[in-house]
Write a structure and sequence with these properties.
Layout (H helix, E strand, L loop, with lengths): L3 H6 L12 H10 L6 H40 L4 H62 L6
Helix pairs in contact: 3-4
Length: about 150
């Protein structure tokens, strides 16, 4: 079975790198040499989550800083300026627009990567379905009692 397309889709930040790649991990699970542990899965998910938070820290800071600065100025001056609030909102809108553009680009890339992964996964799923159908027919022939004529 050709899994090159799926492996290439998983090559960036490969969660299977420690076990030798996707194909070797899948073969080891099928042979019973390896099992999927909940703790390993939870560790992988937490690493991915904190990586995403670290990558988004700059974006969060850009959104929070103008509002925090305006709130501090308002608190220390004791006055509320409509002009200051509008300026802060404009800054935040500019940052949000930039972030939206970045996220649209990331979404397009993610859909392309998922599509490439599915092109590699689909032949494996179809092969598995075919094997299961054949196994079902064989088992039905073996286990079904012969009816008398």
């Amino acid at each position: 079975m050709d899994s090159a397309a799926l492996e290439s889709a998983l090559s960036d930040d490969d969660p299977f790198a420690q076990t030798g790649g996707f194909r070797q991990t899948l073969a080891a699970i099928a042979r019973g040499e390896m099992t999927i542990d909940f703790q390993q899965t939870a560790d992988l998910l937490s690493r991915q989550f904190f990586s995403a938070v670290r990558q988004s820290l700059w974006r969060l800071t850009r959104l929070i800083a103008p509002a925090l600065l305006w709130a501090l100025l308002k608190q220390f001056s004791g006055r509320s300026s409509e002009c200051g609030r509008i300026v802060v909102q404009l800054f935040v809108c500019v940052f949000l627009t930039q972030d939206l553009s970045d996220h649209i680009t990331l979404a397009v890339a993610a859909v392309q990567q998922i599509s490439a992964g599915m092109q590699g996964l689909l032949p494996m799923l179809l092969t598995l379905k075919l094997l299961l159908c054949r196994l079902k027919r064989m088992l039905l022939k073996l286990l079904r009692p012969k009816l008398p004529k």
